Each structure stands twice: as structure tokens, then as C-alpha cells.
Amino acid sequence: VQLQASGGGLVPAWASLRLSCTASGRSINEYNMGWFRQAPGKEREFVAAISWSGESTIYADFVKGRFTISRDNARNTVYLQMNSLKPEDTAVYYCAGRSQGATQYRLWGQGTQVTVSS
């Protein structure tokens, strides 16, 4: 499975972006999926995750109320809707997949850069 994130860009503070993560090679319908980010000079951090069915989601505290993760299994795609963006949201955003029952994400895609100007 290959994951490809897209949708990043340069936006002003308070703008919105929607990131997409599309899988190729096989279906990700049975994978729990997540978004992570890594800012310059910082470690990668968890942003949001969604269960394989889409029924359960979880968010990092710093994005609650601003970001929404969703998935369209028919399109083999996971989304991250980001609203009210802040300069501190600037990072490379990565999508990742975790098999049901697994504790670690083992599928990783190339990231997409999000830059929020103040």
C-alpha cells in the first residue's frame, strides 16, 4: 500500500485547508488511519485518528474544535479538514495506517507541507 498526502499550501492565519490521503495498491478500508505532523526542529506529533469504520475519531487537544478527520472508503481516501489555522500549525503533515489490533502505525505516506502565515 502506498499513501499519498496532498492538499497542503501556504495560507494566512484563520484560513482553512483540506488535506487528502489517498491509498494505492490495496484497500485501506480495514486500517485505522491517522494524521501526524512534524514542524521544523520538532518531533513528529499525533494530530488525529479515525477507526477503520469511521465511527470513532480522536484528536490531539491542540486541534480539537478546529480539525476534523474523516474517510471515504469507497475512494480509499482519508481527509483532514483544518479550520481556523494558526501559525503554530505550520508543519509537514503525514497520513499513516495502522492495522486493526496493531499498536503502531506501519504505513506511512510522504507528507504535505502546510504553512500558515501570521
Overview of the structural elements:
The protein is mostly beta strands and 118 residues long. Helices cover 0% and strands 53% of the residues. It contains no helices and eleven strands. The protein has strands at residues 2-6, 9-12, 17-24, 31-38, 45-50, 57-59, 67-72, 77-82, 91-99, 107-108, 112-117. The strands form two sheets. Strands 2, 4, 5, 6, 9, 10 and 11 form a seven-stranded mixed sheet that branches. A four-stranded antiparallel sheet has the order 1-3-8-7, with no helix packed on it. The relative contact order is 0.32.
Write the layout of secondary structure elements.
Layout: E1 2-6, E2 9-12, E3 17-24, E4 31-38, E5 45-50, E6 57-59, E7 67-72, E8 77-82, E9 91-99, E10 107-108, E11 112-117
Parallel strand pairs: 2-11
Antiparallel strand pairs: 1-3, 3-8, 4-5, 4-9, 5-6, 7-8, 9-10, 9-11
**Strand content of the residues, in percent?**
over 45%
Tell me the span between the first and last alpha carbons. Answer: 37 Å
Strand count, sense and barrel status of the largest sheet are: 7 strands, mixed
What is the CA-based Rg, rounded?
A: 13 Å
In short:
This protein has strands at residues 2-6, 9-12, 17-24, 31-38, 45-50, 57-59, 67-72, 77-82, 91-99, 107-108, 112-117.
